[in-house]
Specification:
The chain has 6 helices and 10 strands, in the order βαβαβαβαβαβββββα. The strands form 2 sheets. The chain has an 8-stranded parallel β-barrel. Strand 2, helix 2 and strand 3 form a beta-alpha-beta unit. The longest helix has 17 residues. It is globular, with a radius of gyration of 16 Å.
Length: about 230
């Protein structure tokens, strides 16, 4: 997989998150979807372990398998990554710099880290959060991170179907390739043209579901051809 950030005239990659059904995952693989997101957060209605085993996940022949974790222990993440043969971990909680440095040392070098920045309704708080994260990146304390992911903040840690104000991203020079998430659908995808720095990948989830974890494959296929 070519994992260079796209320039303005190149389409972003596509990540489908919250997957739970074996046959749908295989369809997405055949469709050449770039990233497959598996949620390992027990409180999520899309908690993958209610539907698939780690052995099941390990059998999917794909180089973009992403494990989504929320304030999980390092030991548990490492075990899931190894047994499920994951390629990326997405840290969606409140993981500290120390945690990220520690898990980077213990993860296989081939497994990349995606750090989520959750965007809420308070503009000043959001700006401070982004500035602090980017400053830490510049100083090297967040060097283990390969990608950012911007998502709408919620008590459920994602999957809300709500979009945050994308204009906020235009106020920063984002130092890493990033995934754009949070209520993305056919209705608002054209708004990425307003972003000065285009996303590396689009992350879709709840807007393309029949019910939590049950994806509308036909709509995803149509959406993929449109971006």
């Amino acid at each position: 997989m070519n994992q260079q950030p796209p320039i303005n005239n190149i389409s972003p990659f596509l990540k489908v998150c919250g997957l739970t059904k074996y046959e749908q995952i295989q369809e997405l693989i055949n469709m050449k979807v770039d990233f497959l997101g598996f949620i390992f957060y027990e409180k999520s209605p899309r908690y993958v372990m209610n539907h698939l085993s780690l052995d099941d996940i390990s059998t999917f022949d794909h180089s973009g398998k992403v494990g989504v974790f929320v304030n999980e222990s390092i030991e548990q993440i490492i075990e899931i990554v190894e047994k499920g043969k994951l390629n990326f971990i997405q840290l969606h909680g409140d993981e500290s710099e120390e945690f990220i440095l520690d898990i980077r040392k213990k993860l296989s070098p081939e497994v990349k880290i995606i750090k989520v920045i959750r965007i809420g309704n308070d503009t000043i708080e959001n700006k401070n959060k982004i500035e602090q994260t980017f400053n830490k990146q510049a100083k090297g304390s967040l060097q283990p991170i390969s990608y950012y992911l911007f998502d709408t903040d919620s008590k459920a840690f994602g999957g809300t179907g709500q979009q945050f104000d994308w204009n906020l991203l235009n106020e920063f020079e984002i130092p890493l390739p990033y995934f754009l998430s949070g209520g993305i659908s056919e209705e608002n995808i054209s708004n990425i043209e307003s972003l000065h720095q285009k996303p590396f990948a689009i992350d879709i989830n709840s807007k393309f579901e029949i019910e939590p974890g049950d994806k509308d494959i036909i709509r995803i296929k149509q959406f993929k051809t449109s971006i």
